[in-house]
Structures are given as C-alpha cells and as structure tokens.
C-alpha cells in the first residue's frame, strides 16, 4: 500500500497556476541508513505506478541488480496520475468537486519539483542513484538539472532532452482519439474509456515496431477478420482502460509534450552541461519513439556520461523488457 505525503500549501506550477494543495503517493523498499547515503530513486513512465517491483520485474536482484538489503528504493506516483497522487479525479479541496478538466496543466519540471519537495520532507538530501526511463527519464533529467549537487549518479533510459515533434504528434493523435469519445467531457468514473482504449492502441504501435508484431502476431489463413494483431490492440486498450483514467492520460501526455530542458535556460546543450552526476545513458536500437540519436545527444552534452545502446527487437518497450541487459550495463558502470 503506497504511503501518502500531503503538502498543505499552494503548489506553484511553471505556467503560473497552482494547486491549492498537493498529495503524492509513494512506495519504498528497504531501509534508509543513518546518514541517508543509500537512496535509489526510480521515476516511472507514463502509465506506471509507484511499485517498480511490479512493472520492472527482475531489476531487484542481490546478485547483479538492485539489492534492497543494501539500498533504500523510493518511487513516487506522479502528479496527475491514477494511483493516489493529486490528479483530475481528485476532489478540489476548496469546492469539494472533482477537478476533471478544470485540473491545471502541469509540466515535467513541476513533477520534478514535487519529487524534490517530498525528498526534503523525508530528510533525503543526497540521492546515490536516480533512474528513469521514457517519461521517467525526463523527470530524472530535469531533477538533475534543478538540483545538480543532490544527484550523485544518474541513469537515463530511452529518453530525450526535449520531446520531439514526432512524439508530440503521436500524443496529439492519442488525445484526439480520447476527445472523440463524447463521454470524456463528463466527470463520471469511466468517462473517456473507449477513447482511452483507442489512444492506447495508437501508443502501442509506437512502443513496439514492425519486427515485434511479425514475431508475435502472425495469422494463418484469416481473410477479413479475427486477426491476432487486431485482437492484441483491443486487448491492450481494454487492459489500460480497466486501470487508468482517460483524463489522467490526457494530462500526462501534455506534460510529456512540455519536456524541454533548454526552455529559458539558453538551450538544451547549456542545460545538460550543468548536470554534475555521473551519468549512464541507455538507448534501445529499435526504438522509434525515442530513437538512439536522442540518447547520443544526451551523452554528448552531459559532462561525465557514458552511452550504452541495447540491441533489442522490442522497440521502446525494450527499456522495460530487456532487464538482464540493463542490469549488465548498470554493473559495468556502477558498483550497485
């Protein structure tokens, strides 16, 4: 069961708006040592939760992974998400009504700012390892720029310094699918459910690739219907809509689009040059949502950094699936 931190003061957002108060759901594994020097902080991706042991199975391993007998692991459900933190489904503390589409828009910088707020509340002033993939990598990168002295080692997986026009276009296409579901604009619990299913199907194509589908979704003798790939898309859409809120997805995708570490900092190169952490950048060769050229850019402009490219058929989802290879490159660069 996640723990809950409530900040009972206005939480100012980058766009000038604010939340009257902020709740963050988070989970921890292991024990914090006396001097607070054993913290591993994991930032989750778009629709994940504060339990990396569930969505990153195998990463916790005494032999060649993260040993929770040695480290204190923490993961926080992001602002706007569906798993306990303040979101469009929360009640506005001043009106008692569900926020819905009155929820203020927020950025990746706001998410990273909230993580730092929680860390200070917990008395964590130094993070030994900060890890994040995809949207989680955006958060980790922002935090390492905001508080360079706090982050000692940084691991960025399948992510970028700025969300690409390609990524924004894909997100907008998903939001269009959600908005085409007329129920989305109401505040009922399942508002936008069918639209979210369509959006997830669009997203899934960008998370995988041609080879992935050729490997797992080939049909025999079908003519006009009941194709495996069709069933797979529908199944994945229904699976997400059964656990996630359409408005949360809509807002979080906009937060992804906001990601640009160079905004008001003189450009991405200058912003990245301020990172002090020893950094490992990991790319997935077949990722066409965050192509390896984006990880190459990060490694070129973060001062103390190394780049590893993992050969995988799983596309962007490789950062979640290729756990053994990820553990291997982590051990190559760090003494975890």
How does this structure look, described?
- There is one protein chain.
- By secondary structure, this protein is of the alpha/beta class.
- It folds into two domains: 3-163 and 259-333, 3-Layer(aba) Sandwich (Rossmann fold), CATH 3.40.50.1820; 167-255, Rna Polymerase Sigma Factor, Chain: A (Orthogonal Bundle).
- Helix content is 37%, strand content 16%.
- The strands form two sheets. It has an eight-stranded mixed sheet with strand order 1-4-6-5-7-8-9-10, sandwiched between helices. A two-stranded antiparallel ribbon has the order 2-3.
- Helix 1 links the parallel strand 5 and strand 6.
- Helix 2 (108-121) crosses helix 3 and helix 4 runs antiparallel to helix 8 (246-257).
- It is globular, with a radius of gyration of 20 Å.
- The chain starts with a strand and ends with a helix.
- Belongs to the AB hydrolase superfamily. MetX family.
- Transfers an acetyl group from acetyl-CoA to L-homoserine, forming acetyl-L-homoserine.
- Homodimer.
Which oligomeric state applies? single chain
The ordered H/E elements are: EEEEEHEHEHEHHHHHHEHEHH
Determine the fraction of residues in helical runs and give it as a percent range: 25-40%
Overall average pLDDT: 95
Structural Rg: 20 Å
Task: Tell me what the CATH architecture of the largest domain is.
Answer: 3-Layer(aba) Sandwich
Q: What structural category do the secondary elements indicate?
A: alpha/beta
Q: What is the CATH C-level name of the largest domain? A: Alpha Beta
* Main sheet properties: 8 strands, mixed
Spatially, the strands of the biggest sheet line up as: 1-4-6-5-7-8-9-10
What's the CATH H-level homologous superfamily of the largest domain? Answer: Alpha/Beta hydrolase fold, catalytic domain
CATH fold name of the largest domain: Rossmann fold
Note the beta-strand portion.
15-25%
Number of helices: 12
N-C termini distance: 26 Å
Question: Using DSSP, what is the number of strands?
Answer: 10
Please state the overall shape, judged from the principal axes of the Cα atoms. globular
EC number: 2.3.1.31
Function: Transfers an acetyl group from acetyl-CoA to L-homoserine, forming acetyl-L-homoserine.
Catalytic activity: L-homoserine + acetyl-CoA = O-acetyl-L-homoserine + CoA
Domain AB hydrolase-1: 39-320
